[in-house]
Amino acid sequence: QVKLVESGGGSEQAGGSLRLSCAASGYTYSATCMGWFRQVPGREREGVAAIDSDGSTDYADSVKGRFTISRDNAKNTLSLQMNSLKPEDTAMYYCAADFSGSECLAIVRYFGYWGQGTQVTVSS
Asked: DSSP code of 22?
């Protein structure tokens, strides 16, 4: 019954910015942990960032200082502000949620609920 829908993907030039959003529904309470992940065809899905219910965050080294994850529990939304984009950021980006109460880190196997993805393409 949990549904996650991403939006905001598109094409941008290197050095530009893009903001992704994830709308969540079907919740009776806020997830203890939410995150953003990305995947390139032929490669494993990788963690980008995660945020717990108190706002504590975890970022992949590749995006630290450039991306910012945030959540609005009142609106049941999750966001990813992406600045200083690089061509290597090109991927399908997925929103995910975890209700297990485990430590909130951007690790794929920790998450059980996923959105359909939104494509981000960064050109040089």
From this structure: E
Sign of torsion over alpha carbons 120, 53, 62, 42: negative
Question: Do 92 and 35 touch, CB atoms closer than 8 A?
Answer: no
* Contacts of residue 93, Cβ cutoff 8 Å, sequence gap at least 6: 6, 9, 20, 36, 37, 38, 48, 80, 117, 118, 119, 120
Give the tokens for residue 106: 């951007």
Neighbours of 62 (CB within 10 A): 14
Among the listed residues 45, 18, 13, 49, the one whose alpha carbon sits nearest the alpha carbon of residue 117: 45
Nearest CA to 115 out of 19, 3, 35, 1 is that of: 3
Alpha carbons 51 and 118: distance in angstroms, whole number:
19
pLDDT (tens, 9 = 90+) of the chain, 124 residues, equals 889 999 999 999 999 999 999 999 986 566 789 999 999 999 999 999 999 988 999 999 999 999 999 998 888 899 999 999 999 999 999 999 998 888 999 999 999 999 999 999 999 9
